[in-house]
Each structure stands twice: as structure tokens, then as C-alpha cells.
Amino acid sequence: DTGVSQDPRHKITKRGQNVTFRCDPISEHNRLYWYRQTLGQGPEFLTYFQNEAQLEKSRLLSDRFSAERPKGSFSTLEIQRTEQGDSAMYLCASSSRTDVRGELFFGEGSRLTVL
Amino acid sequence: AQKITQTQPGMFVQEKEAVTLDCTYDTSDPSYGLFWYKQPSSGEMIFLIYQGSYDQQNATEGRYSLNFQKARKSANLVISASQLGDSAMYFCAMRGTGRRALTFGSGTRLQVQP
User: How far apart are the first and last CA of chain B?
Assistant: First the structure.
């Protein structure tokens, strides 16, 4: 059984470019989360999917950010017209509906650097 | 609203000694869960321990235990017999009633010295 995988692990881009990150959750998990983590801070919630439905979005998720989970399996997070303030680690996590504790299993993250 | 406060930006501990990492929380939810995660330099968040707000006993998982004091709204992590591999960032987090996302604190960097 593989864990949560994220791709790419590192992305360097110029301001104004679009970037897309992919997350493959643990196969039997129907819940998927995106978090953003800046240096020296804890992860901040961005959005949450249950199957293919996006059920919750943080105010941090500006209009330039869009997330999808079209078939309820993998998810993508796209950032349009990147800004230097978007530089951060983007973490994906998944969880099982049947887990009473609701423990999140995280991937290793996608680190974005905007020049 | 929920808030997690971790007041120790960094901690040092000698190998084989015990260390306590502080966490206080604030919530108006009647029931909630508290979590601790470890984040090594590789970046992956690793689940350590969970405490439900109605659990009668403090949670333990191997060398990790959670000192849960509900009246004080604190959920401190105790690591016994520290090992060099325990050096990492540690995050306290909580989830309230009916919520799915976790709210994280700012973390504590633990360095275990030989």
C-alpha cells in the first residue's frame, strides 16, 4: 500500500506563470485535503473534498487558486498568475470516512518557489 | 473559531531524557479531537497521537503520551527516552465538532543532543 503521493516535489516558476500540483491519495480514502505551509509556520487549511465534491474552501483560497478532484481519486491544485507570496509548501492529505478519529495522512508536499 | 497555541519555538533535550512540548487550545465546540504530528526535514507530516475530548484517560502511543488537561485547555506531548531521530518539528492540531479540517499550531522545533 502506497501512501499519499504528490507531484512535483519542487517547482520553481516566474511570477505570473501558472502552476499545477497533483495529489494521489491513499486508494481507499474518500476525503482529500489541501494545506499550505510557509516557512516556520504550521499548515493552513485550503480546501477539502469528499469524493469529487469540494465541500469546504478556506478564505485563503483566492480566485487565483482552483482545486479539482474530477473522479474522486486524484486531485489537482492550480495557481494562476503566481505571486511571490504564493511561495510555500503545498501539502495534500487524505483520510477515510470510516476512521472515527479522522486521522489525516499527509504526502511529502510540493514546494513552490516563485521568483 | 478554533485556535492552537504552541509557545515554544524551539526546545533542546539530551538523548534518553524526557521532554514535554506544550500546546493550548481554544474552541467553543462541545467535543473535539486533539492530534500531534511530527514533521522531519523531509517535509512529511507523521501522525503521532490522538486524544478525544471525552476520553477519560490520557492517550499513549509507545514513547509518546499526551497530558490532557481539559479544564486548562492544554494537550501537552510528552516524549520519553528521546532519540536522535526525534529531532523534528512537532505540531499540535485540533478538529472540532462537525468539522473535517484540522487547525494546526505554529509548531515547536525539537533538537535532541547526544
Answer: 41
Q: How far is CA A101 from CA A47, A97, B40, B78, B100, in A?
A: 19, 10, 23, 20, 11
Given B6, B47, B103, which is nearest A103 (Cβ)? Answer: B47
Q: Are A25 and A94 in contact (CB under 8 A)?
A: yes
Contact A30, A50 (CB under 8 A): yes
Retrieve residue A3's grid coordinates: 501512501
Contacts of B45 in chain A (CB under 8 A): 43, 91, 93, 104, 106
pLDDT digits (tens, 9 = 90+) for A45-93: 999 999 999 999 998 888 999 999 998 899 999 999 999 999 999 999 9
Grid cell for residue A107: 504526502
From the CA of B34, how many Å to the nearest CA of chain A?
A: 9
Rounded to a whole number of angstroms, the distance from the CA of B110 to the nearest CA of chain A is: 13
Report the distance separating Cα B53 and Cα A18, nearest Å.
43
